[in-house]
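Progress against Task 2.4 (sequence-to-structure conversion) is shown through the following example record, which the project officer requested during the mid-term review.
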Amino acid sequence: MQQHPDAAGAADAETGAGDSARPAVASPDVPTSIVRAVFVTEESVYGVILVSGMIVVAGAHGDSSWSVFWTVLTTVIVFWAAHVYAGTVAHHGLDHERVVGLGEAFRFAFRRSLGLLLASIIPCSILLLGATRAVPDAVALWAALWAGVVVLAVLGFIAFRRRGASLLMQCVGSLATAGFGVAMILLKAFVH
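Structure tokens generated for the chain above:
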């Protein structure tokens, strides 16, 4: 189990060990920590793919953007709630000879699952443009799918970048992750 850097510093202060014995580590700023912990996760990637799949399925029936929006939103909320529940159950109990309480397990699962929920914001916002007739339904559906490709590309790029991959591998990772969104677009083209 990793010790939080602040906890290590507090332990050094208590034992009298100076910080000069180890190099100073810059702590990431809050927005970067939130992006890493919530948005750039496998749940986010899964959420974007889930949303894209729902757009393909709901849009295949010729539904309006409004109908597709509600189908996607409802499905994402149900999947998110199920993910939080499953994560809570999975992490509750004994973990490495330490008891994890229900509240702690829920907070962990909630935080971990937020990416799945947040992944729907951009595509759903675009679907709302169609629902409000700011753009035609077909444009909203296709734009939401392409937005999913862009979001997946960004997630892939950031994930590879924060793991210290070379620029070439960051681009390859970005393209590979975006490929799942492109697969959904191809599916939409064949279903439609």
